[in-house]
Amino acid sequence: MTVLIIDDEPGLRQTVSLILSGEGYEVHAASDGEEGLARARELQPDIILCDVRMPRLPGMEFLKRYREQGGTGLVIVMTAYGSTELAIEAMKAGAYDYLPKPFSADQLVLTLKKAEEREALRREVGRLRNEVRIERRYGEIIAKSPAMREALEIASKVARHPTPVLITGESGTGKELIARLIHNESERANQPFVPVNCGAIPENLLESELFGYVRGAFTGADRDRPGLFEAANGGTLFLDEIGDMPMTLQVKLLRVLQENEVRRLGENRARTVDVRIVAATNKDLEEAIRQNRFRRDLYYRVAVVPIHLVPLRQRREEIPLLVQHFIEVYNQKLRLDIRGIEPDAMKLLLDYSWPGNVRELENTIERALVLADGPKITANNLPTHIRIPVPPLDGTDELPEDELSVKKHNAALERRLIRKALERTGGNKTRAAQLLELSSRALLYKIRDYGLE
Hints:
453 residues; alpha/beta; Rossmann fold; Helicase, Ruva Protein, domain 3; 5-stranded parallel beta sheet; 19 helices; 16 strands; 13% strand; elongated
């Protein structure tokens, strides 16, 4: 720890410096209060030993000005014999302790050790308070890995400004949670947060959803209807999967972002809107630009501040925290009392690649809680593709010739057949179930179980 000695007696400064240096402290000295203030600003010491009676700037005045300037170090005043009242006055003004002169080396070291313990305790309390603040602030977002902490810090900083944000990352990494965090940390927190999945709405309906329409604009438009831009006025519009937006709509979106105006379908007049845009995608938009599937000018408009969320397989240290979080959430939601997870089951979760990321982990824990018979989740409560790993989706689903496990071969064959059926039917699960001679419910269960979603 760094100690600053402020005293006008050179002999005392030298003696105290020698004693404390021998105890491992980093020691600096100043000959009066004015010099002491300058050194304190420069060094930011943990502890200050300050004489009460000094020329130019007495100890009490030093203490006052040091605190006014934002100094946070512990100040121990040194007083001559018989000046106890002055020492008590200094402590009322913010000093931590006092040392009556003359003092022994043992008294000096003991006083500083006590101050050091208090400083360490203060820092630990501050750290714990900060962790609690972060936990409350980020809600359901677990952030232990450096990559996620960096993403959250960027989100918190940009939230204070109306700057557009583009959140990238694989499906299930928590892009909407980050978008909601940005909204909740902004001045728009009391205004609407309106999410729209640009890839889930048919192209012929997306324009009317975003911009609204007036009565008679098209067949079935029997009344005026505001769009999502108007619904989000004053708040935040979250454009999820913006990479799936048709090129024709990209042009219209760009115009809205440039002019802050929308026109309902079938209407000539423009309506002013004040909307903060947060967009998200699991696609490589720069590659989409090269392939003329995404407008470069729109990209630069929405990606002023990019935030990338790494997949769960690259932040495995967060899996135990997420598991515990989802156990608590679904215990309450499902009125269960599962108290944890067995070590072998946790090892399986840590070893799995999680192609569906946090969303897949959440679904897995909910399923395991429902199936659990005892007080803890066991390996048998986990899906087959986690308990009995099979080759990745881009492989052949073939096992090594020396692998003799019937279960593993059956699992690989079953997944291979399901994948072929889905390919043959263009993803139509009802027709695929007929080809596989399975019920639709059984097929859905197996698709989820094998990570084929």
